[in-house]
């Protein structure tokens, strides 16, 4: 083995993508000490995307206080990549469910203002390319809170600014974008999104994602009516009707808001990360590519990191090994999508707490065993 590329996702609640990569490297070093190792921490647009892209581009994490989903101040962050011109924002950092206690979840009043404040902070810092990862939101306001914090005014029949939250959208009458942050016009927005839900209907933002945000059956009706009214007002105001577009329902309809008012382009998260990390260039000439995530199963083939890495490696016909915290009975399907072999790091039956605590050691041990097997094979 002369060149080995290690490109895993994080093992959620246990190890970051970089920590997984380092643990794999340590295991392989014990067997192949003279190999060239290239570590490319990965993500698929969800949790860990900021850290992965910051790590691989020598960027920085920017932390600031913003408005949380229920109006209180929370600490959030975004990544400023090494080029100094690109920011990566995970919506959940500012407007995520983890900021709201289970008993307090209420998408009727939750706001996405904090996400807009992160965008404003980045724009003020001179950023003109912003990648936004959607997912994990506590909100159902179609991104109107985000836009309000960027200077948009949403007012009722009397010209009064409407309240925050998804339910208040029913009061919307007028949209004024004259005070939008001036840098918005020069900024390119990309959205990392792996869902194709429209804004409304049985597969829409409210029906599919509302319950996990605390929406009751009655509130779901209220929110659906409010989003329908919003879409109607937007069309009446001369904007393109985006309600049926794939991804419009993502993150409580924030996809819809970003399509409509920010001309955002939508791409699978893994595609954005593969491009930003220059993974294609990294794997060229490699003898082996190792990837992984906390769990590899049949769902992994739908836009998850291991398959994105595998497809990139297969451009050059490079073998790919997947390492996971756990694997499923249906995991074999990933072998039809570029992963040649899959290994679980679990040495025995154990509790989740034990698995998290021993993850680094178990990744290293598994990697060493894989490397040993490869060395034995090559010695024949």
UniProtKB/TrEMBL annotation:
Keywords: Kinase, Transferase. GO terms for molecular function: kinase activity. It comes from Oceanisphaera marina. InterPro entries: Glyc_kinase_flavodox-like_fold, Glycerate_kinase, Glycerate_kinase_RE-like, Glycerate_kinase_sf. Belongs to the glycerate kinase type-1 family. This is Glycerate kinase. It comes from the Bacteria.
């Amino acid at each position: 083995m002369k060149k080995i590329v290690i490109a895993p996702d994080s093992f959620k609640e246990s190890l970051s993508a970089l920590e997984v990569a380092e643990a794999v490297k340590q295991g392989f070093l014990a067997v192949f000490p003279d190999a060239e190792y290239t570590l490319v921490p990965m993500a698929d647009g969800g949790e860990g995307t900021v850290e992965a892209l910051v790590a691989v581009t020598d960027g920085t994490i920017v932390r600031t206080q913003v408005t949380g989903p229920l109006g209180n101040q929370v600490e959030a962050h975004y990544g400023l990549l090494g080029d100094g011109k690109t920011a990566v924002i995970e919506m959940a950092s500012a407007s995520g469910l983890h900021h709201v206690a289970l008993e307090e979840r209420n998408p009727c009043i939750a706001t996405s203002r904090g996400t807009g404040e992160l965008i404003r902070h980045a724009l003020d810092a001179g950023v003109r390319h912003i990648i936004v990862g959607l997912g994990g939101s506590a909100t159902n306001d179609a991104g109107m809170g985000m836009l309000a914090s960027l200077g948009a005014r949403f007012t009722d029949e009397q010209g009064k600014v409407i309240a925050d939250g998804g339910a208040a959208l029913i009061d919307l009458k007028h949209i004024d974008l004259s005070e939008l942050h001036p840098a918005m016009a020069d900024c390119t927005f990309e959205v990392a999104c792996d869902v194709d839900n429209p804004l409304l209907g049985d597969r829409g933002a409210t029906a599919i994602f509302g319950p996990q945000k605390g929406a009751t059956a009655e509130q779901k009706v209220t929110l659906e009516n409010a989003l329908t009214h919003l879409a109607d007002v937007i069309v009446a105001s001369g904007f393109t009707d985006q309600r049926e577009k794939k991804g419009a329902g993502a993150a409580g309809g924030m996809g819809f808001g970003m399509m409509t008012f920010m001309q955002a382009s939508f791409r699978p998260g893994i595609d954005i990360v593969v491009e930003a990390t220059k993974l294609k260039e990294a794997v060229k000439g490699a003898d082996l590519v190792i990837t992984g995530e906390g769990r590899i199963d049949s769902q992994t083939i739908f836009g998850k990191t291991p398959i994105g890495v595998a497809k990139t490696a297969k451009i050059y016909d490079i073998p790919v090994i997947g390492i996971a915290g756990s694997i499923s009975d249906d995991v074999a399907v990933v072998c039809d999508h570029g992963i040649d072999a899959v290994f679980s790091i679990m040495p025995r039956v154990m509790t989740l707490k034990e698995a998290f605590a021993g993850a680094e050691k178990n990744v290293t041990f598994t990697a060493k065993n894989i490397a040993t097997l490869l060395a034995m094979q090559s010695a024949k």
